[in-house]
Write a structure and sequence with these properties.
- The protein has a single domain (about 5-120), classed as Pnp Oxidase, Chain A (Roll).
- The protein starts with 13 loop residues before the first strand and ends with a strand.
- The protein has 3 helices and 7 strands; from the N terminus they run E-E-E-E-H-E-E-H-H-E.
- It is an alpha+beta fold.
- Strand 1 (about 15-20) and strand 2 form a beta hairpin.
Length: about 120
């Protein structure tokens, strides 16, 4: 039975694998929140992963260690979308609930780079 996003709920980090135009896979460990069939991720607006998602929204997720070097479990394929508005607010709230360090970081956000929210849906099989 293939892994689903619900299998990630208890994890602290996932590797978000995106692909360059030449097909090279780049995995980045990220904070995330699962809400039903959607995984929410936040990123700085100028991050390379956003450029790669805009070029190719097909991604993979796998539970990992904080540095992304140890993969735990199966890779789960999905489709990423950059989101705004109420959906972004929903994802942001879920990330705030899960990570106390994010809530602390929110206090300093006005001096930091702009952020972008990503919603990932499981790829249809």
């Amino acid at each position: 039975m293939p892994a689903t996003f619900s299998s990630l709920k208890s994890e602290k980090y996932v590797n978000l694998e995106t692909k360059r135009k030449n097909g090279t896979a780049i995995a980045t460990p990220v904070w995330f929140a699962v809400d039903g069939d959607t995984v929410y991720v936040i990123s700085e607006a100028d991050a390379g992963k956003l450029k790669r998602i805009r070029n190719n929204p097909s991604v993979r997720l796998a539970a990992c260690s904080f540095d992304g070097k140890q993969i735990r479990g199966e890779w789960i394929e999905g489709t990423a979308t950059i989101i705004e508005g109420q959906e972004a607010a929903r994802g942001d709230g879920l990330l705030d609930q899960k990570y106390w360090m994010k809530r602390v970081g929110n206090l300093f956000q006005r001096w930091k780079k702009p952020r972008v929210w990503i919603a990932i849906k499981a790829a249809s099989r």
